[in-house]
């Protein structure tokens, strides 16, 4: 009886993890870029003084830092015995159709584009177009002050990501 209850609890936790929201956030004004599983984990890209960028991974009660450029610059050891890779008989899973289904599984929660091309004539030509698009969709702005800002919040759930790969 006890092992069945433990297996049931683990199974319910795994099913619950499939429905936790995954947020992708890009804000160029505040310089915040992160991916977050609500309440579980957060990975954010930050500027660093020593390295160019670092990735801060934050989970409950623990914080890690990863330097992706340091991993790229370290010399790789050459292996003496080279093995040939077998080609997959299943083909490539990342077809354009699959990638499109994956992109469509994301939901846009918040977005704003504030654009200045640097040329007042081009800005003036884009102003009516952005006004028309803003009327139907919202979030598009033209400014003549030199600001270029993007705010984008995408939300998805792991179950929808898995579903985009499974459905043909």
Describe the structure.
The chain has helices at residues 2-18, 68-73, 96-104, 120-136, 158-166; strands at residues 22-27, 32-37, 41-47, 53-59, 62-66, 107-115, 140-142, 149-156. With 168 residues, it is an alpha+beta fold. The chain folds into two domains: 29-71; 93-168, no CATH class. It has an eight-stranded mixed beta sheet. Helix 4 (120-136) links the parallel strand 6 (107-115) and strand 7 (140-142). Helix 3 packs antiparallel against helix 5. The model has no long low-confidence stretch (mean pLDDT 87).
Beta fraction:
25-35%
Low-confidence stretches: none
Global Rg: 22 Å
- Give a short account of the largest sheet: 8 strands, mixed
Task: Offer a concise description of the structure.
The chain is built from five helices and eight strands. The protein is an alpha+beta fold and 168 residues long. The radius of gyration is 22 Å and the shape is extended.
